[in-house]
Amino acid sequence: MSRLRLLLGLLLAVTITVTVGASWLHRQWQNADEERLHLAAQLDVAMSQRQGAIEQRAAAERERLIAERQRQDALQQRSAAERQRLNAEQQRLEALSQRSAAERERLNAEQQRQEAVAQRSVAERERRNAEQQRQEAVQQRTVAEQLRLLDVGQKLATEVSRTLQQGDRAIGTLLALQAYRLTIENGGSPADPEIFEALRQAKFSIALAGHVLLGHEDEVRAVAFLDNESLVSAADDGSLRFWTLDGSAANRVLYRSPQRLQALSADRRGHFVVGGSEGSLLLWTMGDTPQYIRLDAQRDISDVAFSSSEQIAVGHLDGRVSFWPKPDVAPLSAPAKSNAAAHAQPIAVFGSAPMLAWAGYDGGVHLWNTSTPDRQPQIIGKSLGRVTALAVDVEGNQILAGTLGGDIAIWDLDDLSAPFHKLVGHASQITSLAVAAGGRLASGSLDNTIRLWNLARTDLPPVTIDHGAWVWSVVFAPDGKMIASAGADRAVRLWPTSAPAMADTLCGAMRRNLSVTEWQEYVGDDIPYQRTCDHLPEASHAQLD
Predict the structure, then answer these.
(1) Final residue of a domain: which of 447, 472, 489?
(2) What string of DSSP letters covers 147-197?
């Protein structure tokens, strides 16, 4: 039993040993197999890597070969480009050589051309010098001839008065016209004072027989046109008179007062007339039977003026200024100082603008906006001293002031701070100023004259008209072709203002020109004959319509 147990024990031990050994061997085999598989996998990886490396080397070789081919191609292209560049450079050098040769030829040709031009320039300068000398000689002869003919025109103008006084109106008129024609055709001014006066005398010899309007019994203080054919006048005899230029309604008395009428103004349509007397302001409505109303001015009046909107401004002898926006309302009192020693107060209104100007008793011009009556006026021209007349131009761009000494100051309203421009010519106090369209100024003075100025050409001398007495008032007709003056000689006088218009009127009144014989007698036999009025024939005796 024990041997059996021993045997069984041995068998069990062997079995266990075999089992353990088999298990170990199995594990060894598994490990070996796993290692073999691992080695096989590694071999596969190595083979794969080797194959990848081979492929990479092959790809790299291919890329190298491609790059080499590209390099070879680039080298060939650079070589071809270099050959092209060398060819182009050679062509450029050849072209430069050709251009250089062409430029040398051009320069040679240009030099030859310039030499030819220089020769022509010398010849042209010599020709021009000769032509200039010829023209200067001709011009000198022309200027000398023009001066001679202008002198002849002046001499003819001086003959007009004598010829007219001798009763030969036709010859006198033709001499005035020929004097005018010689003047304007030879560079003279149509406003030349001598020529203007000759035409004026001739015109009054055949037209405007009523150019001196007589009827007032004392000094005429003011005159105003109603239209181009009629006017009214006021005088110290207390009367307001109506006149027509053709004399059909001469010396018609519209009003008479024991008091002097010192001032007068008409609205721009000629429908209303305002006049000032001692303490009263009279407003007439014009028509077939003019009617008037009396406004209480309270103080003596020295000047009146209408605005284009028919407002009334009044200057008083005591230096005050009143303004009526409407006749039926109370007047405004301008901020003008009163003074017992004040003189006549000239005033002016600015058309439709709400502006009023007056002369301060202590000098200068006061400008007042009537739409803001509480504001103080602006004062200009204090250095002028006493201002005795005022006017505003038609466009409302300038204000003009006449002085006690006879000067006229002009301001541009756009720049009142700028120095005024001065017109000098009158020898005594300016009493009246009037401005017409086109920049024409008429001034009246106590030196007995009226002067007509061109405000656009103040360098030209004014036309001087002798009224023959103190001039108290001057005014333009609405169309500017006539002025009227009123003065201490109790007369209203009418004066034309345009030399060309007078010449046209005179030629229209004539029936023929000077004869050749008359031409030689008055003008001269060394001056070629010409028709004084182109549309008229010669005749042995001049006649008038």
Answers:
(1) 489
(2) HHHHHHHHHHHHHHHHHHHTT-HHHHHHHHHHHHHHHHHTT--TT-HHHHH
